[in-house]
Model the fold of this input.
Amino acid sequence: MFSFSGGGATPMPIVNSIFTGNSSVSDGGALFSDLTILDLINCTFSLNTGGSRGGGLYNYVGCAVTVTNSVFRDNSDMFGAGEESQAYNNPSNLLSLNHTCVQGWTGSLGGVNNTGADPQLVDPLGPDGSAGTEDDNLRLASGSPCIDAGDNAVVIETLDLDGNPRIVDHDGDGTATVDMGAYEAQPSGGPVPTVSEWGMIVMTILLIAAGTIILRYRQPRAVQGAF
Ligand SMILES: [Ca+2]
Ligand SMILES: [Ca+2]
Done:
């Protein structure tokens, strides 16, 4: 996805969304941000590949991107699969990450309550062994450190990508805390999630509603597959 020229004072929110199985021949395997103001909340980036830098996210120029309650895992670029291969920020940009799980996290990007721990995604490739298809399972396993580790203050949707309640007390400590990622782990015996793409539709609606963002699919940065 190429997000370009969001010039307004209000960030464009992208919430409860998964980006998986995408690739680009250049920078930004899943999301290339250019001259835009984005607010990524509860998004999961997994198994995206950038031909150059930023397998998950590439923050180009004139950007202010805030990432909260999100997961970056197993994205890669020509430099490997470390922190900058998950989310790359050109030094002139603002990239604010908080309550987010980033593979290879070093702390160099600052923020609070970020972690490089394994998010324990259930089955990112799914039974077909291919990322970006309907059988992918990017939900959090029950022991995931991303459960109950997000920031409730930034949540703007009451449901997660499965349509389950967004802020849930999974560990039973009496405090309901949102998870990191697009899916909220439900208490055992709770609703059984089904694979759905309606979250992608929600994201598209948000993009259109924002009105200030032009999304372009273009070569050489064309993204393949679903978000
Ligand atoms: Ca699959
Ligand atoms: Ca929770």
User: Anything to note?
Assistant: The helical segments are 83-86, 198-210.
